[in-house]
């Protein structure tokens, strides 16, 4: 701790080593959006209900609106911006396109991160497993079925990648 | 059967949406920009006695009604909705002033230090209280010869239905920004209707039209909630930008959005059906009451659509309908996908089920005996001018869902329900002809590309893609030769609002026709052509008597829902959902499925879980943890199909679709729950708490 509300935090953000010096109790969502311009991380509710702000921390899915910088000290954070050049993103993207899983797009980055988190844990999930894993990511446009199908398509097309 | 146009294409906005690079209003940087926050009324009904504002640090501003150069109203249909409350407040949350500045935390501190003194009056909070005064809107109409004295001697069955508020819950909250570059005000944001905002700005600022520009930003869902309401943020940010001299951004947080933006109107519908001695349904009466909230907004149009839809898909004539709307001291209600249709179809379809059970006949047999046909009169004595394929729709639904077997052999705590419904496509009454006069342009360039210019907005439904597809196919050019960007009033003529299931059918049709002209002049290197909507000449509408063709066309649907019920937890589990629609030619099968699935799940939310109540004028469910919308684990896969019935006046045969999918699912769900529980359910939403209450009451 450098001054009263400054805090030194080291973390990896989308592959870069970051030294964050600042208020340790700001919402991580704001830190990502405002300090690092990662606007693919969306705010849909600000209270952990919608998943629009979803990121991966050490490979696990978290809502960044409920986190503070001190919680990511020495951890690795992945947002859509750090994921979108990967092979696995490519597979997920093609699957979302094939299934028609994108409408207004506001939930989409969160859905993509949730898909990645799920497939890391379970490369071949069943429909019910997908539906229950994704239940923290709200979508008001699609009615979910096309998103669930997208995850199934990705799981098949990306066989061996996860 | 499908047409070539139905083959799905990749959405034009897919790549930037999937990789998160698309920027919604909150994501946009605004150099030297300020934020604006709304200070709101704490009273449902009160006089404002005094406002004490704190001394403002440098760079902070307060905006009140005094800063409005012209009218302090948001023009919707009537001009009763103020931009800022002046002398009185009429609901909790009504905007009184804005505080504008560079730091949100400081703005919030300044808001805490602003003191408003009120002299409270006794508010009118419920419909029951409101009905002690005259309604502010009223309509009635009769189809056929409705003679009370002859009907009086007949058997009748009367019942009342009630529905609650529903919030659109678009995932992106209301967001807007404004930049003043004297003499031009530019407003950018999340919206369905750029020209509505332009009108609102003109009404407030009295700027000349060429000095007002409204641009749609990428929009994270609308569902009607971004039809009229964004005008409020548009005017607020514009006033703040003009006064401060800085760009100004306003982003509602979720709780503000849930609490104070427009919602689906709560409603009460009394239906009376008359029977002759052979138990035939020979006449019907409907009495409809809406809760408008504090201001009129779009209530009169919702009231009309609800009233005109109440005949359902049945030719039971005479029909007499009277409808009224009352003001209460709550936030104004407004547009939501379906626009009165969901309330009407919940009532009429549930009523049909209850009649079937009284008469001891199968609910589908009862319906089949009264289906409207081509050439029959609509509720307002217009004509169903085109083939009505209800028998095919029903047959397709029966074979798909095996409805009859499920109904006959339903096990304990299981149930199945069916609904049949329609939705008028396009604006109500003579709206398309007299109010909208939609116009579109096509510009052809040297390199063989063609640009679509229309004010229709992309709100997730895929209109950028579907309209491009229509133009590409009509011109027989590849879709990547068609340019179609988010609209602005500066670059696009007014093709009307993006509402009422009208974009594909009406705007798409003007574009389709205009392609004929482009084709003829194709060898010219560069030109631009425009056209307006041609209102079909055999339609008529009398707005005083409410007689004639209330809509240019109708789309049709049937839903079946199968559920099980847990008598311990009172929870309902949806097992199967089937849906069949006649929407003419689907313009893109994938986009159509997106509308079907999305509309049905939103409608099931309305039917089963989305509950919003006010206590003492204050909304109880002001978070997504308390206002519950469906999640991925709630409903099973939807099995859906479309009939082949191209609409000769639509582009490639297309009818409207976007709203139809939400309209009919609630009554199918309700019927299934009734069979599974054995109780009658005349109100939405059907939550476990409501079921528990009904079961206890009805078992006594
Ligand atoms: S914004 Fe974080 S969960 Fe909704
Ligand atoms: S696509 Fe709009 S919220 Fe999911």
The CATH architecture of the largest domain in chain A: Roll
- N-C termini distance of chain B: 53 Å
* Content-based structural category of chain B: alpha+beta
- Helix proportion of residues of chain B, in percent? 25-40%
How much of the sequence of chain A is in beta strands? 15-25%
**Class from secondary-structure proportions of chain A:** alpha+beta
Instruction: Report the span from N to C terminus of chain A.
Output: 39 Å
Shape annotation of chain A:
globular
Explain how this protein is built:
The complex is a heterodimer of chains A (162) and B (700). In chain A, helix 3 (87-99) packs across helix 6. Chain A contains six helices and five strands; from the N terminus they run E-E-H-E-E-E-H-H-H-H-H. In chain A, strands 2-1-5-3-4 form a five-stranded mixed sheet. Chain A has two domains: 3-82, Ubiquitin-like (UB roll) (Roll); 86-157, [2Fe-2S]-binding domain (DNA polymerase, domain 1, Orthogonal Bundle), CATH 1.10.150. Chain A has helices spanning 28-35, 80-83, 87-99, 108-121, 127-133, 145-157, and strands at residues 7-13, 16-22, 54-57, 60-63, 76-78. Chain B has three domains: 25-122 and 168-260, Aldehyde Oxidoreductase, domain 4 (2-Layer Sandwich), CATH 3.30.365; 267-428 and 546-698, Aldehyde oxidase/xanthine dehydrogenase, molybdopterin binding domain (Aldehyde Oxidoreductase, domain 4); 432-532, Aldehyde oxidase/xanthine dehydrogenase, molybdopterin binding domain (Aldehyde Oxidoreductase, domain 4). Chain B has 700 residues and is of the alpha+beta class. The model of chain B has no long low-confidence stretch (mean pLDDT 96). Chain B has a seven-stranded mixed sheet, with helices on both faces. Chain B has a five-stranded mixed sheet with strand order 7-15-14-13-8, with helices on one face. A four-stranded mixed sheet of chain B has the order 16-23-24-27, sandwiched between helices. Chain B is globular. The longest helix of chain B is centred in the last third of the chain and has 20 residues, at 589-608. Chains A and B meet through helix 3, helix 4, helix 5 and helix 6 of A and helix 1 and helix 16 of B. Bound molecules: FE2/S2 (inorganic) cluster (2 copies). One FE2/S2 (inorganic) cluster sits between chains A (102-107, 139-142) and B (171, 221, 460).
